[in-house]
């Protein structure tokens, strides 16, 4: 029993150090993308869970996921002219894959109901709004919006919201990242949304 606990704690320590490296890389990538499109980062919030912190205090009734907020996270950038740019990182599609395949059988607080880690993916979503906001889609939440087959929404007043998902592997290095950003820029231009490039190195 003692050896089993020791081995588990070793795995936990390894996991936390790996998470540090991963989340540090994601922060650098978000900075790179925002800088390349010339948007200034403003704030962020978790999508899958909630903030463990409420004001200046934490609540132990919160899920353990609330302490692991980058499982699915929304990075928001400051508005620029009539555009709002966002990046979403979904570290593990397992819950959403299982929910889509099996209806409502997956539970957020029961990871054993998720698709296996081998079958799941890590995804990044690039989102741009032009004179439109997510509430205008009438889908209720980003979790609903980002998993629509349709990735372009519009309003009668000429507003548009569009997004595209990428596997994180498509940002594995600077060349792949720039190629993906040019792909997203082309989608924007096709839909009358102009975003500019500003050269910046990936850290």
Notes on the structure:
The protein has helices spanning 2-36, 94-102, 142-145, 174-190; strands spanning 41-46, 53-54, 57-58, 72-77, 83-90, 123-130, 152-154, 160-167. With 203 residues, it is an alpha+beta fold. The strands form 2 sheets. It has a 6-stranded antiparallel beta sheet with strand order 1-4-5-6-8-7, covered by helices on one side. A two-stranded antiparallel sheet has the order 2-3. A hairpin with a 5-residue loop joins strand 7 (152-154) and strand 8 (160-167). The protein is globular. The mean pLDDT is 89.
Quick take:
This protein is an alpha+beta fold and 203 residues long. The protein has helices at 2-36, 94-102, 142-145, 174-190, and strands at residues 41-46, 53-54, 57-58, 72-77, 83-90, 123-130, 152-154, 160-167. It has 4 helices and 8 strands, in the order αβββββαβαββα.
Defining key terms:
203 residues; alpha+beta; six-stranded antiparallel β-sheet; two-stranded antiparallel ribbon; 4 helices; 8 strands; globular
Strand order of the largest sheet: 1-4-5-6-8-7
Stretches where pLDDT is under 50 for at least 5 consecutive residues are none
Indicate the overall shape: globular
Largest sheet: 6 strands, antiparallel
**Count of individual beta strands:** 8
The percent range for helix content is 25-40%
Q: Helix count, per DSSP? A: 4
Helix-strand makeup class:
alpha+beta
Secondary-structure blueprint:
Blueprint: H1 2-36, E1 41-46, E2 53-54, E3 57-58, E4 72-77, E5 83-90, H2 94-102, E6 123-130, H3 142-145, E7 152-154, E8 160-167, H4 174-190
Antiparallel strand pairs: 1-4, 2-3, 4-5, 5-6, 6-8, 7-8
């Amino acid at each position: 029993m003692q050896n089993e606990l020791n081995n588990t704690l070793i795995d936990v320590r390894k996991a936390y150090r790996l998470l540090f490296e991963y989340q540090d890389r994601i922060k650098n990538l978000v900075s790179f993308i925002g800088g390349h499109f010339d948007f200034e980062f403003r704030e962020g919030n978790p999508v899958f869970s909630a903030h463990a912190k409420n004001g200046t205090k934490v609540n132990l009734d919160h899920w353990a996921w609330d302490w692991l907020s980058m499982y699915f996270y929304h990075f928001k950038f400051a508005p620029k002219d009539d555009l709002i740019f966002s990046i979403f990182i979904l570290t593990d599609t397992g819950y959403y894959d299982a929910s889509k395949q099996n209806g409502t059988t997956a539970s957020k607080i029961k990871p054993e109901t998720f698709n296996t880690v081998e079958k799941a993916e890590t995804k990044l979503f690039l989102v741009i709004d032009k004179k439109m906001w997510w509430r205008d889609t009438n889908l209720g939440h980003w979790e609903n919006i980002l998993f629509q087959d349709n990735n372009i929404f519009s309003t009668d007043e000429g507003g548009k919201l569009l997004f595209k998902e990428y596997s994180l592997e498509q940002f594995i290095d600077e060349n792949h990242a720039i190629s993906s950003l040019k792909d997203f820029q082309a989608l924007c231009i096709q839909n009358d949304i102009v975003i500019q490039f500003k050269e910046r190195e990936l850290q």
